[in-house]
Amino acid sequence: MTTDRVNLHGLTPATLHAHLTAAGAPATLAHARSLLAWHLAFDPRQRPKRTSVPRAVQEVFERCVSLARVEVVERAEDPSDGFVKYLLRSPDGALSEAVRIPLEAPGRYSICLSSQVGCAMGCVFCATGRLGLGRNLAAWEIVSAFCQVRDELPDGARITGAVFMGQGEPFHNYDAVLGAAAILSDPCGGRIAARAISISTVGLVPEIRRFTAEGHRYRLVVSLTSAISERRRRLLPVTRKWDVPELAAAIRAHAQATGERVTVAWVVLAGENTGDDEIAALRELFEGVPIKLNIIDLNDGPSDLPLPAGEPSPLRLRRVDQAELDRFRDRLRTLGVPVVRRYSGGRARHAACGMLAARAHPT
Ligand code: SF4
Question: Which residues contact 62 (CB under 8 A, 6 or more apart)?
């Protein structure tokens, strides 16, 4: 019965080994590694002809483990930048997205993955935020989305990086996202270096602190977008729960624990969060803290968005023009931290939520 089968895309070598032995297979950890690598690590064109796993183990594997994947229902390439947006359907009909992102090096790609169907965070600049939360994605759904995109790469190409910046707040689905990251970074799984996997959050402070305490090697990205509490509460309602000083303290603690720069992302909203008041607030919050600032264009065009309940007037969100962006970037550089403009791709297809930003863009 398929309902009792565990999905391969959600397993590490250790958990597959545990499932096989619990089902009575005379399996070793090496058998589990071999089976996992054969099915996950390579696209079907590159797989060896057969595995060396004994027949008795293979039989249990076939009986107990499902190879089902999320299904690709639509793919759309943006001809302006080569980003490819995938619409994926889970067995229950839930839809999610992934985006294949070409990197500078030929034949190298990054993948932007979703963590949830919809999102509960309600960031006002984000189309997904207006949907509300459907449900969490399981680790196997996230990893099988990766496999579907990977298996359509041109010959010889590889996915060398992954960003959790698609639909959903990754730390709102902490266990599944960290489980998927473990499989994506396993040599028998996605074969992506842990340091090339970025997990982005809008500021769930307890989960940031948990992530820090657990000592993961994945990169942390915090979408700050305003360093001023009152403004950030209007733009990112999560601020009402964990305010800016609390979030900054968690960022400081992470930088201190890892000895590495924390990436602070900033969706630039014309006339809203590009003023000197933001520069002063950033200086005060992060004096002496190793951060890197990623500035990101608003993905959608101008829009009047409803504000969270209780806010007095609609918020008009617009992309910045070059002059405003240049001025803001120059002022950010006075903070003495690296400032990188990130390209928010697939704009023509609305290929991402407001946070998708995976490729450096010349300023
Ligand atoms: S920006 Fe990210 S966290 Fe915010 S509503 Fe959109 S998907 Fe959710």
Answer: none
Q: What is the rounded CA–CA span in Å between residue 241 and residue 235?
A: 13
Q: What is the DSSP string of 175-230?
A: HHHHHHHHHHTSTTTT---GGGEEEEES--HHHHHHHHHHT--SEEEEE-S-SSHH
Residue 167 Cβ < 6 Å to ligand 1: yes
Catalytic residue among 97, 141, 207, 272: 97
**Contact 36/9 with Cβ under 8 angstroms?**
no
Chain segment 130-171, per-residue pLDDT in tens: 889 999 999 999 999 999 999 999 999 999 999 999 999 999
- The CATH homologous superfamily to which domain 71-360 belongs is Aldolase class I (3.20.20.70)
Query: Is the Cβ atom of 281 under 6 angstroms away from ligand 1?
Result: no
Nearest to 237 by CA among 319, 309, 136, 314: 309
C-alpha 123 – ligand 1 centre gap (Å): 6
Query: Within 13 Å of residue 299, how many CA atoms lie on the same side as its CB?
Result: 21
For the CA atoms of 189, 151, 176, 181, the dihedral, rounded to the nearest 10 degrees, stands at: 50
Q: What is the per-residue pLDDT for 131?
A: 83
Any atom of ligand 1 within 6 Å of the Cβ of 265: no
Residue among 97, 117, 124, 126 to mutate when testing ligand 1 (max atoms within 8 A of CB) = 126
Nearest-CA residue for ligand 1 atom 5 is: 129
Q: What is the C-alpha separation between 222 and 271, in angstroms, rounded?
A: 22
Whether 239 lines ligand 1, by a CB cut-off of 6 Å, is no
Decide whether any atom of ligand 1 lies within 6 Å of the 222 Cβ: no
**Sign of the CA dihedral with 213 first, then 219, 225, and 226 last:** positive
Q: Is residue 361 packed enough to be buried (19+ CB in 10 Å), middle (13-18) or exposed (0-12)?
A: middle
- Tell me, yes or no, if 97 is annotated catalytic: yes
pLDDT tens for 35-89 read: 999 999 988 887 877 778 999 999 999 999 999 999 999 999 988 888 999 999 9
Residue 127 backbone dihedrals phi, psi, to 5 degrees = -60, -40
Tokens 């994605």, residue? 137
Q: What is the pLDDT of residue 305?
A: 54
Q: Is the dihedral of CA 41, 181, 90, 60 positive or negative?
A: positive
